[in-house]
């Protein structure tokens, strides 16, 4: 499925990137190449192939899901310009 310059312009706008008019033809060609590669990948039979997280078979390291305060309150508050009673102190903005 070839991409034309109008579609490339629309994709650039949606991606919020500025592409000069002179570069739209090259962008359209690159996008067409990417779409062609994706179509090639869709032709591969992956029936029975398990998804993998790495090329080496290993389990992800896991830790217990426990809520803690991190035990670094003093270190965090050391960066604050003003701290009182163990919290960040901020100016009052609502009366």
Automatic annotation (TrEMBL):
Supply the EC number(s).
Answer: 6.3.5.-
Q: What keywords does the record list, in alphabetical order?
A: ATP-binding, Ligase, Nucleotide-binding, Protein biosynthesis
What is the protein name stated in its UniProt record?
Aspartyl/glutamyl-tRNA(Asn/Gln) amidotransferase subunit C
* InterPro entries from the UniProt entry: Asp/Glu-ADT_sf_sub_c (IPR036113), GatC (IPR003837)
Pfam assignment, any one: GatC
* Role according to the record: Allows the formation of correctly charged Asn-tRNA(Asn) or Gln-tRNA(Gln) through the transamidation of misacylated Asp-tRNA(Asn) or Glu-tRNA(Gln) in organisms which lack either or both of asparaginyl-tRNA or glutaminyl-tRNA synthetases. The reaction takes place in the presence of glutamine and ATP through an activated phospho-Asp-tRNA(Asn) or phospho-Glu-tRNA(Gln).
Query: What species does this protein belong to?
Result: Fertoeibacter niger
| Family, as annotated | Belongs to the GatC family.
Q: What GO terms in the biological process aspect are recorded for it?
A: glutaminyl-tRNAGln biosynthesis via transamidation; regulation of translational fidelity; translation
Name the Gene Ontology molecular function terms of this record.
ATP binding; glutaminyl-tRNA synthase (glutamine-hydrolyzing) activity
List each coiled-coil range. Answer: none
Q: Name the reaction it catalyses.
A: L-glutamyl-tRNA(Gln) + L-glutamine + ATP + H2O = L-glutaminyl-tRNA(Gln) + L-glutamate + ADP + phosphate + H(+); L-aspartyl-tRNA(Asn) + L-glutamine + ATP + H2O = L-asparaginyl-tRNA(Asn) + L-glutamate + ADP + phosphate + 2 H(+)
Assembly notes: Heterotrimer of A, B and C subunits.
């Amino acid at each position: 499925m070839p991409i034309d310059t109008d579609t490339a312009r629309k994709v650039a706008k949606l991606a919020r990137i500025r592409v000069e008019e002179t570069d739209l033809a090259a962008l359209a060609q690159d996008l067409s190449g990417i779409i062609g590669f994706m179509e090639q990948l869709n032709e591969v039979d992956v029936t029975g192939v398990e998804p993998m997280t790495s090329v080496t078979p290993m389990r992800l390291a896991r830790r217990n899901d426990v809520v803690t305060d991190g035990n670094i309150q003093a270190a965090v508050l050391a960066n604050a310009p003003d701290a009182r009673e163990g919290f960040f102190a901020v100016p009052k903005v609502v009366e």
